[in-house]
Design goal:
mainly alpha; 2 domains; 70% helix; elongated; ParD-like antitoxin of type II toxin-antitoxin system
Length: 88
């Protein structure tokens, strides 16, 4: 586990969101990191589709950036991305 420094303002945002969503501050930060990373990798996906992709990845063994590029050809990942593109 590494340590990431964030601004006081972002830490306060994390604290508020983590309390509201019943997560630890670390779990909330990790959630936002995953969502943000996938949003940058797949800008055509909306938040709902990113959450569906995260669930699909968890069912396949968890979120792993090293494996994600290999999984891009997997039918469940392609289906999620195609559905997002069709909804625009």
């Amino acid at each position: 586990m590494g340590i990431v420094k964030v601004s006081e303002g972002m830490h306060e945002n994390l604290r508020i969101a983590s309390n509201a969503l019943c997560r630890s501050i670390n779990a909330q930060a990790e959630h936002w990191l995953r969502v943000g990373m996938l949003a940058e990798l797949y800008p055509e996906l909306n938040h709902r589709d990113i959450c569906k992709l995260l669930i699909s990845l968890e069912q396949q063994g968890g979120f792993d950036l090293n494996c994600l590029s290999a999984m891009e050809d997997a039918p469940h990942v392609q289906a999620t991305i195609k559905q997002a593109g069709a909804g625009q």
